[in-house]
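From the shared-data thread, chain only:
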Amino acid sequence: MCGIAGIWHRKDRVTETDTADIRSMIQEIAHRGPDGQGFWSNERLAFGHCRLAILDPSDRGLQPATTPDESGALVYNGEVYNFRELRAELQRVGINFISESDTEVVLWALHHWGVEEALQRFTGMFAFAYFDKRKEALWLCRDRLGIKALSFASVGDRYMFASEDKALLRVSGFETHIDTRSLTLALAFQSVDSYLSSFRNVRRLPPGACWRIDNDGVHEGSFWHALDALDPLRLGERRPDTERAKTELEARLRASVGMHCLSDTELATACSGGVDSGMITALTREFVNPFHAYVIDPDTGVSEAEDAQRTCSGLSVPLKRVALDRAQYLRLLATSIYHVENGNLSNATPALLALTRRCKADGIKVLLTGEGSDELFGGYPWHAKSARRASILSLIAALGPTRSARKRRLDRLIDSAFVNAMGGMTPSVAMKFASSLSAAYNFRQHDIMEALEFLKPISRRVYAGNGIFDLCGHMQGIIHRHDRVSMASSVELRVPFLENGIIDFALNLPPALKYRKRQGKWLLKQVASRYLPAQNILAKKKGFPVTNDYFEGTETLLNGGVLRELMGWSIGETGRFVAMCGANPYLRARLVGHEVFARIYGSGETAEDVGEKLVGAAGR
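Structure, as tokens:
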């Protein structure tokens, strides 16, 4: 895991200004790679890299990496877990390697097979820039689900990219400011696409992106999309073999965790006591021993520490509790917003920063977590709720007096099929609102429902669609935030549930194996019953147990704040928002988060200063 940056000239040559900018960009994201920095340039291209050494920590794993004749060059952030198999294939065609790192394998895979073919072979999480002098082209690519991020901007004939938006802000001559359209979306919804930047003129490559840059400009493409992975025969199976599915899921999970345990440094797991992180912890024990699990133990709300202790005691895995009080949380909130580059955090984000800081202090560089399971295996309560609602509404639609009336009712049902955490809006309403701000903002709901048209009845279609919708939307925000705050602590966060084979398996798992006996994640829980306490498996989903009481009083920062100026609110409007916060703690958290963001990136206050102001406001 690392931080990367680069500048490409369409016409002019690389100058001293460019090389200075690259160094400034890398310095801005040095927290992503404290183990060393490297730079490389040719006539038109400059690369920079900061390294978090995990696989082959020797100097042989340094980046930027080049072929001996420098016809290929790479800066790369992430891990390709099947690199040993790929290495063996490349050795059979005569390619020699000098390191034990996956970076060198990624370079030669791209150089030998070509970018498009190599991407199909990679299993892992990555964002990279690869230059092929033979074609005078630069490729910018992200993994299938966008676990690793990559931001992009241009000024004049220069194209720039970096692992984080804030690095681009350091480029000389690049003018940007907070994008109030993006800010409006973030204020309106609890979740927005993570590839919408908060800054004007900054773009984030979408998941699965494969962009080619050459003399003719930027050619935007992609190499994978969830809808293309759907198999109607498997997903539409009405009587699936439960035992076979359990066996396959367990085998795939074990293989994925084994791959994710590849490391030349110490690793740990985050264990909340739930099914997802519990399974990751249980299977990690088969590959790494000893290791520790970590859990946040806040001083208010319902702590997950006892559930985590129950899991870890049964597995004989030592558990470290990370204490967190209100003042610590609010200070970490400001720091998290600085790193995430958006005020739309979940309550868990500052807590993850606390946990990864503890990991770093303990010498841990790799942390395995359970993200992705809810989206893939139907764990969110609104998945089943939406399916039940669709079943009822489809009966009502069938009562229409004419065929056209029945079709209109069914179309309205499809428009409101996905009811997740969109600020209380159905996506049909949210899409109309978002489209008025940006025509490019796409909620994907129609594409998903069309791709699932073969699923009958419509309740199955809606249930499967909600999972895909959240995989492509809701989860993007989660993994974006988690990448930012874990790397702020120089800790690589790995997500075994988001391995290629598990993604394919889960996307094509019949709904009957995801939801049964009024339980989401039914199949996963059947597998987990072999490893985890029944009490933990059957427990109601909690979410992160920090109450919104932590934010009480912080809304006073809105009075005379920076957010009001950015949004053009009057004093009276701001006062009404502040008054509303008392009755709506979710609104309070959202508004305060964006006020913090506006102060840091709009008026230049430091995260440390804003954190102290939050603590002061909360103590009044």
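The first strand starts at residue 2 and ends at 9.
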